[in-house]
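Supplementary Data S3. Sequence and structure tokens for construct A.
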Amino acid sequence: MRTVVVTGASRGIGKATALALAAQGCNVVLTSRKQDALDEVAAEITAAHPSVGVLAIAAHAAEVDQAQACVDATIARFGRIDVLVNNAGATMWARFEEIEDVAILERIMRVNYMGAVYCTRHALPYLRQSRGLVVGIASLAGLTGVPTRTGYAASKHAMRGFFDSLRIELSGSGVDVTMVYPGFVATGIRENATGPGGEAIRVDPVARENAMTVEECARQVAAAIAARRRQVVMTARGKIGLWLKLVAPGLVDRIARRAVDKAR
């Protein structure tokens, strides 16, 4: 039975992905900072799939010692790691010039980028043993700039560069790397987005009718894992944008600006 570790699994894409993988018969390790929320997800999985092993570990992916502890606990319980889904994330919603404390950007970089680095570093020896898969849940903001998301886009660009480079380093090892680029998804992450003063916005700036459901996003993530795909760009707009960025980058800038204005 495969064992999958999902970071940021207490809600949103992480929770939905864990549920989808459990439905496929995988043991699931859930990790995020909130033990009570993780316990609720674990109970939901156990009720729906009693034959699946579930482990819920409160850990902050951006803390290297906690990332190590999560991997150690996984090996102690299941003896292997077959898939690591780097999903834990933080976001922001503010123009760069309005940000009062640029430490906000450092926090987002630590969670989104360094959290993925730490978890991957500690899981990699076991992924080599299982000839497993590393998954990075990025964003279309990792493929192009997005206004009001400077720090977030930078962190997702960093993820892309890291995992694309790691894929080359791991060539021939049996370990594959899958990068996932969702568009707007109706998750709880934006309800706790950071505003210009460092405050939590508490209101989702993205209209739900303009966003993909977490269930659809998780379905595509699970399918990409099963196929060990190199890259998944989830929206038609994102796929067109990749091509347009090569031939008309200014147009992509205007589209990004309009998309944010419309989402608001």
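Construct B, processed identically:
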Amino acid sequence: MKSIEAILLVVGLLFLYALILAFPTMILWNWLMPRIFGLTQIDIFQSMGINFLSGILFKSNVNIKKD
């Protein structure tokens, strides 16, 4: 039972972390994009998707090894 509780805690914390990161994206999108480009407003889950997609597209894979 302890392992199930630990897994649920980790999943819950990851979801909370994703919501915290998505909130500023949603606020900025809803403030800027409809006025500048005439786009529609987004909700928090769409904002999470934008953050996830931008993480995939713009993630740096550069490894610098100093000997």
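Residues 2-51 form one domain. The mean pLDDT is 92.
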